[in-house]
């Protein structure tokens, strides 16, 4: 419940995409937010305010419902933790930028001290008009955050940039507003995740069972905390941060070591890299060429994270063991041998399995006691971010 008890005002303007506001409202409530709704006069041409009241559990603020005796007015509805305009019309954007208060909708925005997030939805020409562009620039300079519209076939039939951003992008912007951490804002965090696939021949590979879920949870967490995330993954995702794909350990190494790193950056090596690489056979190994048992030759793989030598970069490794008794000693040895600042230890057992939604991690650093955290991977990722932040105090 990331947004538990946060008071959010969802402002809906006149747009053919008004119906997406219902999904935004529902998504915010599922995250624990206490969501209020206000509708512009333009929105009332598309939808009855009572439809939003049924989902919001609060009275909707609009020209038809304003009631000072019952607290339904622009002053009361301005007292929020965050205001989200989605969809936002060009009319409301321009009026807000220039401070016109000729309706209850804009009056509420002007009266509020809450942060504002705007997701426009309009015809491309209207959004690209110099007046609108100046208004958007003015609002951005005053701290208003904009979520860029997307390019689609618009309701008018034109193809252009003007459709409301994806719901997930809007929800992520809201999460970031409440979760942002000044320490991580603008800091580069590079995370590797997933499994490597090493070729045996031209058609076969040897790999492992890593699901990549922990690394994805980490990438999401650091993004929401405000970091500049570079996610190097063997799995494909639709994410709002930079994603680089790899297959083999060589591809992973190339992608990682070509990233520009500076002191203060963080590298989290959560990818499950093959310890041994097969000597690849050209072509395809035929069953007819094998007498019962196939023998493969392997060579020891290079340690990728040890190749990161940029001074001041914090390096965090992951280690998987199957024996609890020796796991901590082995992790401490890897911490020293690889020159890591910390290592995250997983011990595979009946509870912790590949692909599970929960995890248990022992966080081991050079100068601190071992911290063990467990739970859903998403919540563990945020706890790890706090522990990694503490490395900068060592």
UniProtKB/TrEMBL annotation:
GO terms for biological process: coenzyme A biosynthetic process; pantothenate catabolic process. Its EC number is 4.1.1.36, 6.3.2.5. Binds 1 FMN per subunit. The active site is at 156 (proton donor). One of its GO terms (molecular function) is metal ion binding. Residues 1-188 are annotated as: Phosphopantothenoylcysteine decarboxylase. The keyword Metal-binding applies. Residues 185-390 form the DNA/pantothenate metabolism flavoprotein C-terminal domain. Residues 189-394 are annotated as: Phosphopantothenate--cysteine ligase. SUPFAM superfamilies: CoaB-like, Homo-oligomeric flavin-containing Cys decarboxylases, HFCD. Its cofactor is Mg(2+); FMN. Residues 6-175 form the Flavoprotein domain. InterPro entries: CoaB-like_sf (IPR035929), CoaBC (IPR005252), DNA/pantothenate-metab_flavo_C (IPR007085), Flavin_trans-like (IPR036551), Flavoprotein (IPR003382). CTP binds at residues 275, 284, 318, 338. It catalyses: (R)-4'-phosphopantothenate + L-cysteine + CTP = N-[(R)-4-phosphopantothenoyl]-L-cysteine + CMP + diphosphate + H(+); N-[(R)-4-phosphopantothenoyl]-L-cysteine + H(+) = (R)-4'-phosphopantetheine + CO2. Keywords: Decarboxylase, Flavoprotein, FMN, Ligase, Lyase, Magnesium, Metal-binding, Multifunctional enzyme. GO terms for cellular component: phosphopantothenoylcysteine decarboxylase complex. Pathway: Cofactor biosynthesis; coenzyme A biosynthesis; CoA from (R)-pantothenate: step 3/5; Cofactor biosynthesis; coenzyme A biosynthesis; CoA from (R)-pantothenate: step 2/5. The keyword Protein biosynthesis does not apply. In the N-terminal section; belongs to the HFCD (homo-oligomeric flavin containing Cys decarboxylase) superfamily. In the C-terminal section; belongs to the PPC synthetase family. Catalyzes two steps in the biosynthesis of coenzyme A. In the first step cysteine is conjugated to 4'-phosphopantothenate to form 4-phosphopantothenoylcysteine, in the latter compound is decarboxylated to form 4'-phosphopantotheine. Catalyzes two sequential steps in the biosynthesis of coenzyme A. In the first step cysteine is conjugated to 4'-phosphopantothenate to form 4-phosphopantothenoylcysteine. In the second step the latter compound is decarboxylated to form 4'-phosphopantotheine. This is Coenzyme A biosynthesis bifunctional protein CoaBC. It comes from Campylobacter ureolyticus ACS-301-V-Sch3b. The gene is coaBC.
């Amino acid at each position: 419940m990331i947004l538990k008890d946060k008071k959010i005002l969802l402002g809906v303007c006149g747009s053919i995409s008004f119906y997406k506001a219902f999904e935004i409202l529902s998504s915010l409530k599922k995250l624990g937010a206490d969501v209020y709704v206000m509708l512009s006069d333009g929105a009332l041409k598309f939808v009855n305010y009572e439809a939003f009241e049924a989902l919001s559990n609060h009275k909707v603020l609009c020209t038809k419902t304003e009631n000072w005796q019952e607290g339904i007015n622009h002053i009361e509805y301005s007292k929020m933790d965050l205001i989200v305009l989605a969809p936002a019309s060009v009319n409301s954007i321009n009026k807000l930028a220039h401070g016109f208060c000729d309706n209850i909708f804009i009056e509420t925005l002007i009266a509020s001290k809450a942060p504002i997030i705007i997701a426009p939805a309009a015809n491309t020409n209207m959004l690209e008009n110099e007046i609108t562009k100046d208004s958007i620039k003015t609002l951005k300079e005053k701290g208003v955050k904009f979520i860029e519209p997307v390019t689609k076939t618009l309701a008018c039939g034109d193809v252009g940039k003007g459709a409301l951003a994806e719901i997930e992008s809007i929800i992520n912007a809201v999460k970031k507003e409440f979760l942002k951490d000044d320490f991580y804002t603008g800091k580069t965090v590079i995370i590797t995740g997933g499994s490597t696939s090493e070729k045996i021949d031209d058609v076969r590979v040897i790999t492992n069972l890593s699901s990549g879920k922990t690394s994805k949870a980490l990438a999401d967490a650091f993004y929401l905390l405000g970091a500049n995330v570079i996610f190097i993954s063997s799995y494909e995702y639709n994410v709002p941060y930079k994603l680089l794909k790899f297959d083999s350990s060589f591809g992973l190494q190339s992608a990682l070591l070509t990233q520009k790193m500076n002191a203060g950056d963080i590298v989290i090596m959560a990818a499950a890299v093959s310890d041994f690489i097969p000597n690849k056979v050209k072509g395809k190994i035929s069953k007819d060429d094998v007498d019962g048992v196939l023998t493969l030759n392997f060579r020891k793989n290079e340690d990728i994270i040890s190749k990161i030598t940029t001074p001041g970069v914090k390096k965090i490794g992951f280690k998987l063991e199957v024996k609890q008794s020796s796991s901590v000693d082995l992790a401490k040895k890897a911490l020293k041998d690889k020159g890591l600042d910390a290592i995250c230890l997983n011990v595979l057992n009946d509870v912790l399995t590949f692909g599970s939604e929960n995890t248990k991690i022992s966080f081991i650093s050079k100068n601190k006691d071992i911290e063990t955290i467990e739970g859903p991977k998403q919540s563990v990722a945020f706890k790890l971010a706090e522990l990694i932040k503490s490395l900068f105090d060592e």
